[in-house]
Specification:
By secondary structure, this protein is an all-alpha fold. It has one domain (about 5-110). Helices cover about 75% and strands about 0% of the residues. It has helices at about 5-25, 40-60, 65, 70-85, 90-110. Helix 4 (about 70-85) runs antiparallel to helix 5. The radius of gyration is 16 Å and the shape is flat. The model has no long low-confidence stretch (mean pLDDT about 95).
């Protein structure tokens, strides 16, 4: 795998997971439609748009079987960010799940036939 593509996809995953955290922060305690329109929520949406744009750009020159597995990295980053930023709890099963997901990503990208 080309190193540029690897960094592009990792960055897109970082943006998508950061966007998810911002969406959570923006949605917290909102009770009316007007309260959902706030800087955190808008930032989250913008991060998602930039992330999606990077994914589409990557799709223009790489296989979907290479690009799509990186969505799992987004799940891992959201889990980790939720622990550090949102102060959510994690347990050993969650950590084991993260390790399994990362192992799967490694196998697909570096040992598979992509």
């Amino acid at each position: 795998m080309k190193i540029k593509l690897l960094f592009l996809l990792a960055f897109a995953s970082l943006l998508a997971s950061s966007g998810q955290i911002m969406l959570k922060l923006g949605a917290d305690r909102a009770q009316s439609l007007v309260q959902f329109i706030n800087p955190r929520l808008i930032t989250g949406l913008l991060l998602y748009v930039v992330s999606a744009t990077l994914w589409i750009y990557a799709l223009s020159f790489a296989k979907l079987t290479v690009i799509y597995p990186f969505t799992t990295l987004t799940f891992v980053l959201v889990y980790v960010f939720s622990y550090f930023i949102l102060k959510e709890t994690i347990n050993l099963y969650g950590i084991a799940g993260i390790l399994l997901v990362l192992s799967g990503l490694y196998l697909i990208l570096f040992k598979g036939s992509v």
